[in-house]
Design brief:
The structure is a homodimer.
Chain A (H helix, E strand, L loop, with lengths): L1 E5 L3 H12 L3 E6 L3 H9 L5 E3 L11 E4 L3 H10 L7 E4 L6 H11 L5 E7 L16 E5 L2 H14 L3 E3 L2 H31 L8 H13 L16 H11 L3 H20 L1
Chain lengths: 266, 266
């Protein structure tokens, strides 16, 4: 299939390379920063760099909208698609309806819209096997849905039909499981740094904690630490140590309370 | 060396087997629950099950006190050690001084005390290679310290001399990096469960998040998500979704604020 990619950030970069590996032709690459579009296009065999969003003469059948949520509205306002093309965004938080509405506000005719969302954190330049990445697919009609599912199944072993509401829930859960956990690791490093201790000392126990949490049925089953043991002596000693830093005290208290609260409800 | 183990929980179990593998003789095993002591002793070649804490006739040189913090005081009250024996606890949160004081309160003569703390989360029955586990060693005198370091270095490649104050800091940091993160994973599962979504969908992104956080210099450098992007639209949408659950709202708000606060201070 001829596919054009709008946006050349992390997701555009990863999808572009992976789709080409699976014998699709990346036809055009657009980015607001031309240099970024050129960088990505230079890694692809036949891609043209587009400097505007008029695709009326394009031969591409699928346009992957891999831009930030904030940029989506502006792109939808300016984009002109060829007849019968599919426009699919890659956002975890925008609904299918958001995209359809944006396209209808700025254009007279409805377009075939879809969602092509890889549930993964990407870093530009660091190749990642997409085979294990869950793809969440949704579309405005069955034909479009089938096309997007087919393409996703070439890239990944785990392709799901996920509604916009479900995708929102996954996104909220991922914020807890990924963004907030990453921040806790950053805070742990801040604590060890402040006493000139090596953060590396904690890495083996962090690795084992995660391995264990993902190996069991429910991470709650392997909860350890002073909160779950209701060890108030240690909790108080920790809070006393942290007392100079309001922010750390607040997180310690809220998380401890939540662990104890959940323990009771089991 | 002849070594006796007091306590047959996770740590006693792992240390007992590992020490025997390195040609030490586990001489005696004591547990308040005799059946647990018997279980551990049955996995060791020559260990005797002890049903009381009178070790005055024991040939062991080192007594590893692998009991819960709460039980430590009672054990110290009752224990009778042979002359010149070393008593080392395995706790992350008790200081060396705590142990020395307990022994002096209940006995006339000071004993050689130490800390032999493996910085790891253990599960009974699940063997784990101790080679990568950091051991934190501390002792009342240099000779004892050297003996404990020597034994730890047989078990592990990473042996550190860590003071009680430093160990407390490591323990606080581990609560953030392990206990609290594990709880966030449990909450993420709760969120997906509540909408009949598979938690498995999130596992690849969780694995990648942790791999990345531990591979970079500072996890803060790879922070992603709506909080660090100051994406208030998505933050509000998430809070609106969570609004029925006070506890989740509170965690979302506290963590989001903390991420944004730290971003500013860099």
């Amino acid at each position: 299939m001829k596919i054009s990619i709008i946006g050349s950030g992390n997701i555009g970069w990863h999808l572009g390379l992976a789709l080409e590996n699976h014998h699709h032709q990346i036809y055009e690459v657009f980015s607001r920063q031309k240099s970024k579009a050129s960088n990505l296009a230079s890694m692809l065999y036949q891609a043209t760099v587009k400097t505007d969003l008029d695709f009326s003469e394009s031969d591409a059948e699928l346009f992957i909208l891999a831009v930030s949520d904030d940029a989506m509205s502006e792109v939808c306002q300016q984009i002109i698609l060829p007849e019968n093309a599919i426009l699919a965004h890659t956002s975890g938080s925008k609904s299918l309806e958001d995209l359809q509405k944006l396209m209808l506000v700025h254009h007279d005719l409805p377009v075939k819209c879809g969602v092509f969302y890889p549930l993964m954190t990407f870093s530009i330049g660091k190749k990642l096997d997409l085979k294990t990445v869950p793809f969440c697919i949704e579309a405005s009609d069955e034909e479009t849905e089938q096309k997007l599912v087919d393409i996703a199944q070439e890239l990944s072993n785990t392709v799901y039909l996920i509604s916009s509401d479900e995708r929102k829930v996954l996104h909220v859960a991922a914020v807890f499981a990924c963004n907030f956990t990453n921040h806790l690791l950053a805070l742990a490093k801040e604590i060890t740094d402040s006493e000139d201790l090596e953060f590396d000392l904690l890495k083996p126990i962090i690795r084992e904690t995660f391995k264990k949490a993902l190996a069991v049925e429910n991470p709650a089953d392997v909860q350890t630490g002073p909160a779950i043991r209701n060890d108030q002596t240690i909790i108080n000693r920790h809070l006393d140590y942290l007392k100079e830093d309001e922010n750390l005290v607040e997180i310690y208290e809220v998380m401890t309370e939540s662990i104890q609260h959940h323990q009771q409800s089991f």
